[in-house]
Structures are given as C-alpha cells and as structure tokens.
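The following block was generated as part of the benchmark described in Methods. Ligand: calcium ion.
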Amino acid sequence: MDTLILIVEDEPDLVASLEYNLQREGYGTRAALTGTRALELVRRDPKPDLVLLDLMLPDMSGKDVCRQIRADAATRDIPVIMVTARTEEVDRIIGLELGADDYVTKPYSIRELMLRVKAVLRRRGAPPDDDATGPRVFGRLRIDEDAHRVWVDDALIELTALEFRLLSMLLARRGRVQTRDVLLEEVWGVRGDSNTRTVDTHVKRLRQKLGAAGSYVETIRGVGYRFTDRP
Ligand code: CA
C-alpha cells in the first residue's frame, strides 16, 4: 500500500509543487487548504502516514491542528512535520508543546524536505529493539510498546510520540550510556547536528512527566544519558 502524505498548506502553488515532488518519490498525497479540512482528512481512512503541516493557515493555526491531531487517540501516533517561517518557534514546535516530530523552515528546498520526510517515515517504520509484546514492567514503570502507552504507579502518562520513542530507546538499552549524538541520530533521525541542547530539553521534560520514575533516566556528565540498570 502506498505511503500516504497529507499536505496541509493554503498556497495552491506550493501544494501543487509538493504533490508533484512527493508523487514522483512514490508517495500518495492528499491536500488540505485549511486546518478544518486537515482535521477531517487526517481522521479519514486510510489515514495518512505523515502530515506536512504549515503553521500559518487561513482558518486556524497549524499549532492548533497539531494539538488536535495529538489529542485524538485515533491520530496521535501519526508523525507531523511542521513547516514554519520562523526559526525562533522551533523549540516549542518540536515536542514541548505540540509534539511535532520534525520541522522545516520556509523557504525550504524540496530536497531538504524530502530528506526530512524520509527520515521521519524511517523512524516510524523502524523495528523495535526487542520483540516483546504487550506491556512490560520496569520498577514503577509500565510500558506498552504496541499501544504507545506508559504508566507510572498505574497512572497513565501523556507522552508525545517523540518522548515515547526516546523513553523506549533508553529503556531498550538500559544500563548503557547513550551519547547526545547517538540519541539525536536514532530518536530524531538527525546526523552530525551539533544542536544537542534539543536532547537535554526533551530528557528534562520526559523526566518531569515520569515523576517518581524520572530518576531512572540518569545524566552522565559530559557524555549523555543512561537508563538505570535496575529500578
Ligand atoms: Ca500558509
């Protein structure tokens, strides 16, 4: 089945160019010119495998579209790449508030965009590090990899798709130090990027959300992070 990409963009010329280029790469596409239409299409079967979401839309903010996608259990695991003209918003877009998986800033090159799309789809399609199915228990933490759900002391914790991936990877490699570069590459799909502060921000946020289980994620000064060996 075709990988389906939902393009959310109100400039028709840009939509046409994106459709052309994505289809040439073998992707199926759908397009929404408004946020309202995007929220309709994202819930319609077959659901998109990825959403390319412009921040500035005529009827509502792309941020609100992203929030609503993340708030609905039927769509929360669909990866979102935000398109923004403003680099200063990037930190907030990725993860902290909105849970977008990645971003590109306008004006972007089609080539850059295609690389981002491929990286996000690859991360999503990557096999888990072990083949355990059903919830796994680790101390006060319970993780259901299939359902993308996490509980601490039986309380369900709301994690973004990115935070879940981060936790899942740290847990799978527990007891082993993971450098910021490795985390950037494997969780974010970014290679050779020096912006390791992104990792620190997300680990901090993840710890806060995990509450009593937050201490399982240890900081190894000057190196990176390690999930504790035993609870
Ligand atoms: Ca726009």
